[in-house]
User: Which sequence fits this backbone?
């Protein structure tokens, strides 16, 4: 058996492709784009994508060639929703944050070394940041949700993550290890994280961690908007609201059956 066909090796590649497709929903993406995102050569990506489509896990538009998530994934997701879907518990919290602040509110979940945005509620303020949307993924330490989750992990977990991860290569020197440690320390001091336009200039965000039954930071609530809406004098107000609603959601999730 070759390295390319060994079971765990193939599973890892399939997982990377499925996550890449999910990140490009609902418009989908080409084989080239998905292969690049998954770190695969185009022929390998095409072969795996075609196999996934044969199983109903992906669809391909015959006109554009773009791949999207398939019906079988919907059925599998629906079966798993009762165990993992927390959006019904979070909807009231997101509505309250959006209503009270005028900003767009989001819920992200931790998945390994990443966060995935799983729910959103638009605010009333007409100017919005479009960095976050449902399905988008960021590494831990990137965006306010990823930073606040990372900051609330044990020191040992943070050290191990930063030792194996170089975020500055893709996200710039503002995401170097030293810069991240400074923001982690500030986040631990205030309880909430601030992203001062580090992903897209002028697009700010703030986040607070939501904890599971074991006290682990498993999700994050965040608010995003334009820089003028996130002036320093408003940080305490927004941060306090985020922390209050994060506590409410943590209690709801910890008490569910």
Assistant:
């Amino acid at each position: 058996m070759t390295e390319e066909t060994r079971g765990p090796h193939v599973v890892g590649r399939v997982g990377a492709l499925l996550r890449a497709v999910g990140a490009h929903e609902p418009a989908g993406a080409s084989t080239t784009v998905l292969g690049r995102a998954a770190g695969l050569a185009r022929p390998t990506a095409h072969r795996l994508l075609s196999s996934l489509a044969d199983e109903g896990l992906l669809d391909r538009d015959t006109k554009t060639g773009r791949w999207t998530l398939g019906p079988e994934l919907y059925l599998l997701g629906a079966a798993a929703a009762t165990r993992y879907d927390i959006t019904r518990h979070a909807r009231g919290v997101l509505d309250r944050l959006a209503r009270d602040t005028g900003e767009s509110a989001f819920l992200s979940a931790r998945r390994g070394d990443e966060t995935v945005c799983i729910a959103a509620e638009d605010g009333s303020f007409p100017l919005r940041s479009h960095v976050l949307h449902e399905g988008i993924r960021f590494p831990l330490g990137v965006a306010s949700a990823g930073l606040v989750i990372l900051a609330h992990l044990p020191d040992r977990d943070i050290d191990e993550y930063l030792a194996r991860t170089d975020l500055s290569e893709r996200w710039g020197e503002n995401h170097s290890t030293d810069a991240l440690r400074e923001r982690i320390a500030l986040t631990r001091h205030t309880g909430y994280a601030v992203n001062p336009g580090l992903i897209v200039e002028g697009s700010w965000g703030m986040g607070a961690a939501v904890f599971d039954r074991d006290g682990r930071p498993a999700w994050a609530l965040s608010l995003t908007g334009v820089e003028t809406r996130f002036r320093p004098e408003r940080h305490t107000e927004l941060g306090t609201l985020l922390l209050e609603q994060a506590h409410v959601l943590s209690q709801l999730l910890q008490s569910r059956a």
